[in-house]
Write a structure and sequence with these properties.
globular, alpha/beta, 9 strands, binds zinc ion, 18 helices, three-stranded parallel beta sheet, binds D-arabinaric acid, TIM Barrel, six-stranded mixed beta sheet
């Protein structure tokens, strides 16, 4: 040891939960996938109590605990909808589900009563958005949120075309769902903007130009698409051809990862709209073929089915261009997050991204990230305790380094590679 080396003290096994808890709380995470919007994109960003209560995760729960029909519900104003959900899920029932408890946690974190809808409405009405975002990010323990920006969204595209100002707290993502999953409904939008396009995609030149222009305009940190449980690759379909001949080459040209979120059974119950999607087990050989067939592309992958999680870890062990991320949507519940995260640590060490919030309403980052930290404390502490029992105790600095890698570094490296 040289005289300049500061001796580092190992954490005693009994202190591991407390030290992990302190380090998780001190770290500022990057939220790698949300549906939040920077204020310069206009009124797209949802925030406040009525949006929190009418989150589609809670709309799905409303119809299980109330006799209101979807038709009656969707005819109501936002305030009336919130009132109906509040009554059914927060007053007439105890809000023990993950999504309902989340609203309670947000109100509590903001110092509000957890049972007074009127007080909450007054509070949010008095906030100025820009400062409120800073406070919410601070309470959620995040420094940045990654957005979801679809250039074919008619409500969003004009703001970008008019030169929306950048915001260091928010990173754009070029979302491809309309192009890849609904080409027949959207190719005319490309054509009307002067890009060569036709229903059968007889050439990808126009799409490539469209992507290039939007990459320049948005400067996204990655491209992304959500995909059904039936997703296959390669595939002789519009989506298959577009991925192979337009998206993957564009990602290589601009050095961007492609995020694949696989396993949605779209609109199994269209009557409940956004809440009407389900989940199905996917065939992850599609991921294998993407990783092996296009080794100079980098992929971020999240799979919605619990049954696909182990396979995803196995594929990540085979392909270093695959980064598993998050416990997505129906998986973001403590029992399942715990199972998936233990499995990932056991199989991948710290070479994955444990979670994203998927927040649609700003203040959700408070409860989603608090819950993630709470669930992660015993998981990480156990991993270090096992390591200590096997003969290698860790230092606080090592715990800090691991947390920084899991919740920031792996993502930063992936987008900057
Ligand atoms: O989690 C959600 O809110 C889903 O409705 C989806 O938006 C999903 O996260 C996605 O990005 O497609
Ligand atoms: Zn999402």
């Amino acid at each position: 040891m040289t005289t300049t080396t500061i001796p580092q003290v190992s954490v005693a096994p009994a202190d591991l939960p407390a030290v992990v808890d302190q380090e998780l709380n001190a770290a500022r995470f990057i939220d790698v996938h949300t549906h939040l919007f920077m204020p310069s994109l206009g009124n797209l960003g949802l925030w406040g109590i009525d949006e929190l209560i009418t989150y589609h995760y809670l709309e799905a729960e409303l119809f299980r605990s109330s006799t209101i029909t979807p038709r009656e519900y969707f005819a109501l104003s936002k305030r009336e909808k919130a009132k109906a959900i509040w009554k059914a899920l927060f007053v007439e029932n105890t809000p023990v589900s993950e999504a309902a408890r989340g609203v309670v946690a947000v109100l509590h974190a903001l110092g509000l009563s957890t049972s007074d809808l009127g007080e909450a409405r007054e509070f949010f009405a008095s906030q100025s958005l820009d400062r409120h975002i800073d406070r919410v990010f601070e309470l959620g323990g995040i420094s940045e949120a990654v957005m979801t920006n679809d250039p074919l969204d008619p409500d969003e595209a004009p703001a970008w075309e008019n030169g929306a100002g950048r915001d260091a707290r928010f990173h754009p993502v070029l979302r491809l769902d309309r192009i890849l999953n609904k080409w027949p409904d959207h190719w005319r939008a490309l054509e009307s903007k002067g890009y060569q396009a036709d229903e059968r995609v007889s050439s990808v030149t126009g799409v490539r130009r469209f992507l290039a222009d939007w990459v320049k305009r948005m400067q996204p940190v990655y491209m992304a698409v959500s995909l059904p449980d039936t997703f296959e690759f390669p595939e002789d379909s519009i989506r298959g051809r577009l991925i192979e001949h337009a998206i993957l080459p564009a990602c290589r040209e601009f050095n961007l990862p492609l995020s694949l979120m696989i396993g949605v059974r779209y609109q199994v119950n269209p009557a409940i709209r956004l809440a009407g999607d389900g989940v199905g087990k996917a065939d992850l050989r599609a991921v294998e073929r993407l990783c092996s067939g296009f080794p100079s592309n980098r992929y971020l992958v999240s799979v919605l089915s619990r049954e696909n999680q182990h396979e995803l870890c196995v594929y990540a062990r085979k392909f270093s261009n695959l980064m598993p991320f998050g416990c997505w949507w129906f998986l973001n519940n403590p029992s399942i997050v715990e199972e998936i995260t233990r499995e990932r640590i056991e199989m991948l060490g710290t070479s994955f991204i444990p979670q994203h919030s998927d927040a649609r309403v700003l203040e959700q980052v408070i409860y989603k990230w608090r819950n993630t930290r709470r669930t992660l404390v015993p998981i990480l502490a156990k991993a270090y305790a096992l390591l200590a029992a096997d003969g290698r105790a860790v230092t606080r600095e090592e715990i800090r380094r691991d947390i920084a890698r899991l919740f920031r570094g792996n993502f930063e490296k992936w987008i900057a590679a």
